[in-house]
């Protein structure tokens, strides 16, 4: 496993543009090597900013040959404005020629499983299966170090077997969420953190110092071939 790569930028705009260019290169290379690229998307200002940038310029990506998943989503109605998937469609997926059969949205609370969040988690786990390996898993991060919906000192963060779990007591509202877990994140070829803001500096420093993932979940996420931190100066100020 290679050492993490840390890139520091003057602004979020510069961070997003560099991530966009590298995302295009990674996906194109994955498609050349394996025919289809597989990615896990994230929400947040930088995650959605990256998707908007890709809508404007996605280079030579063949979007019909990209398998698209989400690292987590809110278990709320499909049209809820905080759904990561809805924001991703607005920012990117409605503007590029994706294959709908390759876009794997986590179930909403008014979907086929109704309010049965455990059934929704089992279904996404079935979809992920044992063979899905993301070419890149994108991650935002909270000030307390959460990634996806893996918060400090929770059962979801401690999970080492199940690929997807239900979270019913998220400390950040809404409380009900579906999330991928560390076994899936850490099977990804590359894991990218998109982080900006001084309120994230302590978590960034803790992860770089090898903190426990139970205390700082961001410290537990890494790719098998690469881990990249895209940071603005404020987020990197503790390094």
List the helices and strands and how they pair.
Layout: E1 5-9, H1 12-34, E2 37-41, H2 44-56, E3 66-70, E4 72-74, H3 84-93, H4 117-128, E5 136-139, H5 155-158, E6 164-167, E7 177-180, H6 182-185, E8 190-195, H7 201-208, E9 226-232
Parallel strand pairs: 1-9, 2-3, 2-5, 5-8, 8-9
Antiparallel strand pairs: 4-7, 6-7
Helix pairs in contact: 1-2, 2-3
Tell me about this structure.
The protein is α/β, with parallel strands linked by helices and 239 residues long. 31% of the residues lie in helices and 18% in strands. The chain is built from seven helices and nine strands, in the order E-H-E-H-E-E-H-H-E-H-E-E-H-E-H-E. A six-stranded parallel β-sheet has the order 1-9-8-5-2-3, with helices on one face. It has a three-stranded antiparallel β-sheet with strand order 4-7-6. The chain is globular and about 45 Å long. 45% of the residues are buried. The mean pLDDT is 97.
Short note summarizing the structure:
The protein has helices at about 10-35, 45-55, 85-95, 115-130, 155-160, 180-185, 200-210; strands spanning about 5-10, 35-40, 65-70, 70-75, 135-140, 165, 175-180, 190-195, 225-230.
Strand content: 15-25%
How many strands, which pairing sense, and closed or not: the largest β-sheet? Answer: 6 strands, parallel
Q: Alpha-carbon distance between the termini?
A: 22 Å
Number of helical elements: 7
- SSE-based structural type: alpha/beta
Radius of gyration: 16 Å
**What percent of the residues sit in helical stretches (DSSP H or I)?**
25-40%
The strands making up the biggest β-sheet line up spatially as 1-9-8-5-2-3
Mean pLDDT: 97
User: Low-confidence stretches at least 5 residues in length (pLDDT < 50)?
Assistant: none
Multimer state: single chain
Shape category: globular
Tell how many strands the DSSP assignment holds: 9
């Amino acid at each position: 496993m290679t050492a993490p790569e840390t890139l520091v930028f003057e602004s979020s705009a510069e961070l997003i543009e560099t991530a966009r260019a590298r995302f295009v290169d990674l996906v194109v290379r994955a498609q050349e090597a394996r025919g289809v690229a597989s990615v896990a998307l994230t929400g947040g200002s930088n995650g959605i900013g990256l998707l908007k940038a890709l809508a404007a310029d996605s280079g030579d990506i063949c979007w019909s040959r990209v398998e698209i998943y989400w690292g987590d989503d809110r278990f709320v109605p499909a049209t809820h404005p905080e759904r990561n998937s809805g924001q991703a469609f607005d920012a990117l997926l409605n503007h590029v020629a994706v294959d709908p059969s390759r876009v794997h949205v986590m179930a909403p609370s008014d979907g086929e499983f109704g309010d049965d969040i455990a059934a929704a988690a089992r279904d996404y786990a079935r979809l992920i299966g044992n063979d899905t390996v993301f070419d890149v898993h994108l991650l935002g991060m909270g000030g307390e170090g959460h990634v996806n919906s893996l918060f400090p000192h929770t059962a979801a963060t401690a999970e080492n077997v199940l690929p997807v779990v239900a979270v019913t007591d998220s400390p950040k509202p809404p409380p009900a969420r579906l999330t991928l877990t560390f076994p899936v994140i850490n099977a990804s070829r590359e894991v990218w953190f998109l982080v900006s803001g001084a309120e994230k500096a302590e978590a960034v420093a803790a992860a770089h110092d090898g903190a426990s993932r139970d205390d700082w979940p961001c410290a537990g996420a890494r790719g098998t071939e690469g881990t990249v931190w895209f940071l603005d100066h404020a987020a990197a100020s503790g390094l």
